[in-house]
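just leaving the lab so this will be short. what follows is a protein written twice so to speak, once as letters and once as structure tokens for the fold. can you read through it and tell me how you think this chain folds. anything you notice is useful, everything is just below:
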Amino acid sequence: MKTLLIICLSSLAITFASLGQNPPPAATGAPQQAVTPAQPAMPGQPGMPAQPAAPGMSPGTAPGMSPGTAPGISPGAPGTSPLGAMPSPGMSVPVTLSPSPAATAAESATPSGHLYETKVTGNYVIDKFNQGGPIMWPILIVSIVALTVVIERIFWWMGRWFRRDPKRIEKVFTAVENNDIAEASRLSRGSRDPVLRMLWNGLNHQHASLQGALQVSAGIEIKRAGRFLVVMDTLVTLAPLLGLLGTVTGLIKAFGALGNEEIAVVAVTGGIAEALIATACGLGIAIFALIPFNFFTSRVSNLEFELQTAATNLEVMLGSHSAAREMEITSGAPPAGKGSSI
């Protein structure tokens, strides 16, 4: 039992670590290159083509302006460059990048420090577990216990199937039918088949109480076969109730935050998500444990029927031999009341 529990815990850890991991996002295209803002081109600057001058004007002078004055710029005070506001060649221009609308919406969706703010780890299983609320911890314990019990019962019934020996049982009944009790006891000794163990116990206690010995041995075998069925029955009932409890607590948190207009939407959606996740997990565990529980219960019923059938056959065979022996003894005795008279 302890070994199976360790195996189940290791399996769940591996599942959380690997199977629930979301795949990394695929590359959508070539890497983007940095965009350098274009510098304003002014006529007459080095490295820039000169614009043709209008007729009657000197080069570098706009129409209606005095020479040396850029278009749209009024001459400043003496000693001041008319292009003081324009960047010089080779001068870097600071660029301010505004955040994207998606990032702004993601930041404003959940208020900082709110009850429903959960840390996103990138693991689907762990993220859903965190969104399910505190009731997910009892549900996790129930799931581990249910998985452990199911695995243990599967291994036990597989061993029971391999331990079956119907041919040996037929040989034992043949020996009993031939009134060879010693041979029947020898054939049933040391077997791991529950039916043969019960027959051996009855054959070795037939002189004291055959029926009592068979009943005690059959009860021990049935108890072994039905081990942990009560635990599975409890888990099948408990898991949906825990899911329902998570539903109630999630809705209480959701509707309790409706008075605050700033976080009302986030609170309602978070509470409903917690309620649905807890309910789904509880129902999933109950469904997972219900099918093996019914299967194992039917197997216990079949084993009980086999034990009762074998015990009845042994009682009938031994009873017929006892009746035949009594008839032989009665027929071989001298008649009572008849003797020689002198």
User: Anything to note?
Assistant: Residues 134-245+292-329 form one domain. Confidence is low (pLDDT under 50) at residues 22-88, 92-97, 101-116, 335-342. The chain has ten helices and no strands. The first helix runs from residue 2 to 19.
